[in-house]
């Protein structure tokens, strides 16, 4: 196992040991439709506690459901996130509007930053269910709204 995989596994395990089952909430990105999320676990790892996260990190694990025809809206993340497609097929265009399709059983790695604006859409007939691991800088939202790129506005 690589150091990166070991680190992600350790952080996810730490988050799962600190459950905070909050119930359904609306996803942050707008304009979204047909999207709901449940926080399964979250914790904050203080600065200096782990050598590979000297600034600290907010760890959150969420189950996100996108109904058929639903969309997350265009958004980006301030840190790389990881998602596992548990059910359905997610169409995921990035800032270049070229869709990447993720199916059940596949892992998504979304890079950080506004240049990586994207949206997730369910063009299928069954709900898409994602298990998402957020490793965010302290004080940053899980996602930030973004204007659709020019190629998506036609």
Automatic annotation (TrEMBL):
Domain Cupin type-2 intervals: 64-130
Domain of life: Bacteria
This protein's record includes keyword Signal: yes
First and last residue of the signal peptide: 1-29
Pfam entry (one): Cupin_2
UniProt keyword annotations, A-Z: Signal
Listed InterPro entries: Cupin_2, RmlC-like_jellyroll, RmlC_Cupin_sf
Name under which the protein is recorded: Cupin domain-containing protein
């Amino acid at each position: 196992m690589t150091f990166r995989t070991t680190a992600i596994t350790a952080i996810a395990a730490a988050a799962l040991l600190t459950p905070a089952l909050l119930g359904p909430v609306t996803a942050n990105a707008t304009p979204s439709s047909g999207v709901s999320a449940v926080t399964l676990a979250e914790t904050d790892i203080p600065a200096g506690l782990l050598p590979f996260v000297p600034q600290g990190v907010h760890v959150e694990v969420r189950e996100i459901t996108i109904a058929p025809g639903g969309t997350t809206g265009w958004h980006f993340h301030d840190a790389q996130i990881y998602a596992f497609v548990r059910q359905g097929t997610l169409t995921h265009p990035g800032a270049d509007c070229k869709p990447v399709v993720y199916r059940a059983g596949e892992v998504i790695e979304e890079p950080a930053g506004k240049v990586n604006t994207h949206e997730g859409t369910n063009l299928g007939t069954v709900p898409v269910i994602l298990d998402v691991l957020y490793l965010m800088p302290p004080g940053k939202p899980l996602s930030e709204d973004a204007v659709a790129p020019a190629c998506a506005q036609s």
